[in-house]
Amino acid sequence: MQPERLALLGLVVVGVPLAVIAYITLAERALGLLPERRRPQLRPWVWIGPAVLLLLLYLVYPSVGTIWLSFHDARSQNFVGLENYQAIAGLSDVHIAIRNNLLWVVVFTSGVILFGLTFALLADRVRYESAAKSLIFLPMAISFVAAGVIWRFMYAYQPPGLPQTGTLNAAVTTAGADPVAWLIVQPWNNLFLIVVGVWIWTGFAMVILSAALKSIPAELLEAARVDGAGEVRVFRSIVLPLLGPTIAVVATTLVIFALKAFDVVYVMTSGNFGTEVLANLMYEVLFNTRHFGRASAIAVLLLVAIVPILIVNLRRFRFQEAIR
């Protein structure tokens, strides 16, 4: 490793903790110089100050800058108004990307919640619950890029008569059928990509829903069973309504991921064969055509799609806090 990189690494490893300790020490000493009645008012702002500064620097400023760039030309030199938005509105790739993103939102979100809830219910009834949950949660420990590489090998296709290196096509040909070009055949290839996302995120949904499931009072369930309610009725009338707020939180997270899906699509198809999504299209416009204005406009389109979901979730959270 080069000396410059070693020095930078040492600065990060040693300097960052020292800076945090110095900030805390100096901030508390500065607060100690103030009148005692003012300290409770200022101490929260002192503690959250760095976080707010980083939020402004790395989130708010880039967002505002991206919106500003979306009103400029390819080299960000001349102001062109809404020209970039008009241009992307007429692109067929944008229409395909929006369609695919909506497909991700519906199929991916519902699939993850369905499988996550199913595994949470089943794992709660077995003695090897921890081992089962660990196995299902394992894909979350893999990066999305690595998962895309793994499933690209799973879907690998060779023409009939050649040895099939893909796991699925090896199984298909062993059964006597012809191999399938899983990532090329339209429109099913989008569903095969979504399967990868479901495989990754099911463990996340399972863990969250399992925790919510365990918080349901056992006495309530037993009382319903004593009254003659079957397991289906108990689930439909008691368990599912009580899991509603948790399911909404999980669904919000999944919808946001589905709207900005990129890694799996980029690694497995690069948006070809009708699998384009908005995040991948933004990447292509930015780095292939070098049109900063249109790439920024697509990024703003993604932002506009995500912000209302966050606002609805925030309002629902405030409503739940108000009724407690």
Structural overview:
There is one protein chain. The protein is globular and about 80 Å long. It contains 13 helices and no strands. It has helices spanning 3-32, 39-69, 83-89, 92-123, 129-137, 144-154, 167-174, 188-214, 218-226, 231-259, 263-268, 278-287, 292-323. The N and C termini lie far apart (56 Å). The chain is mainly alpha-helical. α1 crosses α2, α4 packs parallel to α8 and α8 packs across α10. The protein has two domains: 3-69; 84-323, MetI-like (MetI-like fold). Helices cover 74% and strands 0% of the residues. The longest helix has 32 residues, at 92-123.
What structural keywords apply?
0% strand, mainly alpha, 2 domains, globular, 324 residues, MetI-like fold
Q: Could you spell the SSE succession in H and E letters?
A: HHHHHHHHHHHHH
Distance between the termini: 56 Å
Q: Segments where pLDDT lies below 50 for 5+ residues?
A: none
What proportion strand? under 5%
Helix content: over 70%
Largest sheet: none
Work out the number of β strands: 0
Shape: globular
| CATH class value of the largest domain | Mainly Alpha
- Determine the CATH topology of the largest domain: MetI-like fold
Count of alpha/pi helices:
13
Kindly name the structural category: mainly alpha
The radius of gyration is: 25 Å
CATH architecture label of the largest domain: Orthogonal Bundle
How many structural domains does the protein architecture include?
Answer: 2
- Please tell me the overall pLDDT: 88
